[in-house]
Write a structure and sequence with these properties.
Elements (H helix, E strand, L loop, with lengths): L1 H7 L1 H7 L30 H11 L5 H5 L2 H21 L5 H18 L5 H4 L6 H17 L2 H14 L1 H25 L3 H4 L6 H16 L3 H11 L1
């Protein structure tokens, strides 16, 4: 089809290849968190830094590592199917897009924290996560297309005039706080729980920090950034 033909075009490799001379534009700057360290895999524009940092965690996100959590993902799939059967038996209308979105969040919860967030169990947007991220994506997408000298003014104006954006910023704060608490709780878990054959991503990131953190400059801030980026 058309998409396959476009991806097969040699120009794609020239532009997006790992050693390409083309770098990301300043569109990505609006997605960068306000911290002094690494800004994350998505917004980082320096290709060398991006490659080095990705190399540190590539194995953690490999398909073989994800498959270690296959049973947990199956639990999410079974719960989704169970809810779909209930809707079918009742003859109810269902917003499939919403449920696929909730399914995706719960899968991320299992993969990253070894437990679902609860979207599908409670049939609602837990702590406003979806609303916050959807609202911020729209705002950042527009901000990224503006000239750099207008971005700050745009964000200020949007925040001041849009109740939805202000609510989203509050929800985003809850996400950051919740992520930090989850990481701190995991650090305190007993040694017996660390040998329970669980393979979630957060555990592997903490192990990387403990084993090679100083060598790779992989700090607590990097773990927190990975957790936020996952959402």
């Amino acid at each position: 089809n058309g998409i396959q033909q476009q991806l097969a075009n040699p120009i794609v490799k020239i532009i997006y290849g790992s050693r390409s001379a083309f770098t990301k534009t300043d569109l990505y700057d609006v997605w960068a968190p306000t911290n002094e360290g690494y800004t994350g895999h998505f917004p980082t524009r320096d290709e060398k830094t991006h490659t080095e940092r990705r190399r540190n965690v590539n194995n953690i996100y490999s398909m073989s590592c994800v498959l270690e959590s296959e049973t947990s993902i199956d639990a999410c799939t079974n719960l989704l199917c169970k809810n779909m059967r209930i809707f079918a038996e009742k003859g109810s209308l269902v917003d499939l897009g919403l449920w696929i979105n909730m399914y995706a969040y719960d899968v991320i919860g299992e993969l990253f924290y070894r437990k679902m967030f609860g979207f599908m169990h409670e049939n609602k947007d837990i702590k406003g996560y979806m609303h916050a991220i959807d609202s911020m994506v729209s705002m950042f997408a527009i901000g990224g297309t503006l000239p750099s000298y207008l971005v700050r003014a745009y964000f200020f104006y949007t925040t001041m005039t849009s109740p939805l954006v202000r609510r989203a910023l509050g929800d985003l704060g809850l996400i950051k706080t919740g992520t930090k608490m989850a990481i701190e709780e995991r650090k305190k878990e007993p040694a017996s729980q660390k040998s329970d054959n669980k393979h979630d991503i957060l555990r592997k990131l903490l192990e990387l920090n403990a084993d090679r953190g100083e060598e790779l400059n992989f700090t607590d801030q990097d773990i927190h950034l990975e957790a936020i980026t996952a959402l």
